[in-house]
Amino acid sequence: MLAFALLAKPIARAVQHHAEAAALAPPKTTPVVVHKKPVIVLPKHSRSQLGVVVLNGNGRTGAAGNAAASLDSLGYHVRGTANAKRQNYATSVVMYKRGYAGEGARLARDLHVKVVGPLDGLSVSALHGGQLVVILGAK
Known about the structure:
The relative contact order is 0.19. The chain is an alpha/beta fold. The longest helix is centred in the N-terminal third of the chain and has 23 residues, at about 1-25. The chain is about 35% helix and about 20% strand. β3, α3 (about 100-110) and β4 (about 115-120) form a beta-alpha-beta unit. It is built from three helices and five strands. The radius of gyration is 29 Å and the shape is elongated. The protein has helices at about 1-25, 65-75, 100-110, and strands at about 50-55, 75-85, 95, 115-120, 130-135.
């Protein structure tokens, strides 16, 4: 019992020192943070060479027709207007067919839309021969 009492205090100090050293030590590996530069894709086609389908996703009557008139005045060829499957889009979205990322980005700039991406949830046949889709949201 006496041996235990004599060894307990030094062992406790050693364990505490080891725990403090481990807690305060810098990590053994430094995480690598990779910042990717955005890839800028330039349009290859003029506005008049592009077909755009405008879908109303905000539920406001006439929104697709008004947007189509604006696009027509900018030189785009509007292939059609319709209601989106949902009427509760919070923000507007521009989607593009494969190979038309630059054109999709330009259309989004023209309409002040911040969300741009490849076709998602729509078939190519839904484009009626066009390359771009605008889904109008509440904003």
